[in-house]
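4.2 Preliminary Data

To establish feasibility before requesting continued support, the project team ran the inverse folding procedure on a target of 480 residues. The structure was first converted into the token representation described in Section 3, and no sequence information of any kind was made available to the design step. The complete token record follows.
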């Protein structure tokens, strides 16, 4: 067994955050015949509460700290919680991009617990007034630049995740990555000022789809055709990333003493970590990935939660699989289209009015890049779902069967429809079903790219030597 490094998440100021997990892992590993002693375990202490610190700074600091370990075989395994996972992934990317600057120490296993791989909807709260008040009360800074990374749809997080999607399968090179994430917010930690802390489809901090590294990159762009009436037709190009082992831990929350993935859920978490650390080959990795998928399917089938509400009727939670769509709106020159509307449509009529009721769960624009919007969608309603029965009284219907509303499409509505330079209304190709973008518990990054309409009147040459006023130019035809 190689050295095992634990890496905590954002805002941690004490190694008590790891709880009893290192000791439990060591004890269980010995019981299963794995060679792991406490001398092989290191706990990270990185600073996330300084407004000047960036993820790049943490990457360099981590690399420096690794060199000081003098590892016997120049390799290690890592268990990372929450924001700790993107830090380690960014270090791996830096190793790949700048091999002369970073160490050649090899990571063999990366086990990510509730990782904020695509960020967290809570990051905007952390950057706001409440986050600043909490930081002031705790005597530390909120860590603004790390929160910038954690905000949904941040440019830095998308850069890292798109490199993963378009990169080679790390398992083929002997690097095995695993995502273990919870599926229930800790209801006792619900913040009435911020509904994200009780958001279904998350562990109370990170959405299941944000944790999952199984993801896609979709590009909708103009290929020269129109759908009529001056509407540009957008064709879909879809890239599927490598396959990653992904397991949903039923009942686990992001943190907290009652249900936290590092605390009360630790026995179950330790079991899954050991399953991951026992992987030794690509064949082992594929087999465990498939086992995780089967177990996730069983978990998805048991999706009704009746939350006790004292003397009142229990609160109903139907834990449908969710899908996250991160949309970036630009034109073909790369200019951000901040005022452009984006709509999903359904049916052969391609109407937004035909989308399934209740499919849209949340919509959040990135505060620094307003042309980037993250949609949180009920994938089960998009796919169509069977009748949901009461687990206590199976004759009682909690939700009737929902038909699918396919095919699904998109429509872009730019504000500038005329002038020397403008954009036109655009829609996905008629008959093309964009349901392929919506996978359960997964994220799709969608680049919607509109053609920039530049008219000949923006720049003319003339041989008329007498003075000529061109303060009111005629647009002329669009430049081809």
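Position-by-position output of the design step:
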């Amino acid at each position: 067994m190689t050295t095992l490094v634990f890496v905590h998440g954002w805002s941690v100021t004490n190694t008590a955050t790891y709880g009893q997990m290192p000791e439990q892992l060591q004890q269980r590993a010995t019981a299963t015949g794995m060679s792991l002693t406490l001398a092989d375990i290191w706990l990270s202490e990185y600073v996330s509460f300084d407004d000047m610190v960036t993820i790049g700074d943490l990457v360099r600091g981590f690399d420096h700290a690794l060199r000081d370990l003098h590892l016997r075989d120049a390799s290690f395994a890592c268990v990372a919680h929450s924001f700790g996972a993107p830090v380690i992934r960014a270090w791996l990317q830096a190793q790949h991009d700048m091999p002369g600057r970073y160490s050649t120490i090899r990571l063999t296993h990366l086990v990510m617990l509730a990782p904020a791989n695509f960020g967290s909807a809570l990051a905007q709260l952390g950057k706001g007034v409440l986050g600043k008040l909490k930081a002031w009360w705790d005597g530390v800074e909120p860590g603004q630049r790390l929160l910038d990374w954690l905000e949904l749809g941040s440019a830095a997080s998308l850069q890292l995740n798109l490199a993963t999607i378009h990169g080679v399968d790390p398992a083929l090179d002997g690097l095995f990555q695993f995502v273990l994430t919870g599926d229930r917010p800790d209801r006792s930690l619900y913040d009435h000022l911020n509904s994200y802390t009780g958001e279904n489809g998350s562990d109370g901090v990170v959405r299941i789809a944000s944790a999952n590294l199984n993801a896609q990159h979709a590009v909708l762009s103009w290929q020269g055709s129109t759908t009529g009436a001056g509407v540009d037709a957008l064709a879909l190009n879809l890239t599927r990333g490598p396959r990653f082992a992904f397991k949903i831990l039923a009942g686990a929350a992001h943190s907290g003493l009652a249900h936290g993935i590092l605390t009360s859920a630790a026995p179950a978490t330790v079991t899954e970590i050991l399953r991951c650390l026992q992987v030794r080959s690509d064949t082992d990795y594929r087999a465990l990935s498939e086992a995780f998928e089967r177990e996730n399917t069983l978990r998805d089938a048991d999706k009704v939660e009746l939350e006790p509400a004292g003397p009142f009727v229990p609160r109903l939670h139907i834990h449908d699989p969710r899908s996250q769509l991160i949309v970036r709106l630009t034109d073909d020159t790369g200019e951000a289209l901040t005022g452009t509307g984006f709509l999903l449509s359904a049916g052969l009529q391609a109407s937004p009015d035909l989308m399934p009721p209740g499919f849209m769960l949340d919509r959040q624009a990135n505060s620094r890049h307003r042309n980037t919007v993250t949609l949180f969608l009920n994938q089960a309603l998009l796919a169509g779902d069977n009748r949901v029965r009461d687990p206590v009284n199976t004759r009682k219907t909690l939700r009737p069967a929902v038909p699918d509303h396919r095919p699904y499409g998109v429509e872009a509505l730019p504000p500038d429809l005329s002038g020397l330079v403008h954009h036109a209304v655009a829609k996905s190709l008629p008959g093309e079903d964009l349901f392929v973008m919506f996978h359960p518990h997964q994220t799709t990054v969608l680049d919607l790219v509109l053609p920039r309409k530049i008219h000949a009147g923006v720049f003319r040459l003339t041989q008329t030597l007498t003075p000529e006023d061109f303060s009111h130019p005629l647009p002329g035809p669009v430049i081809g």
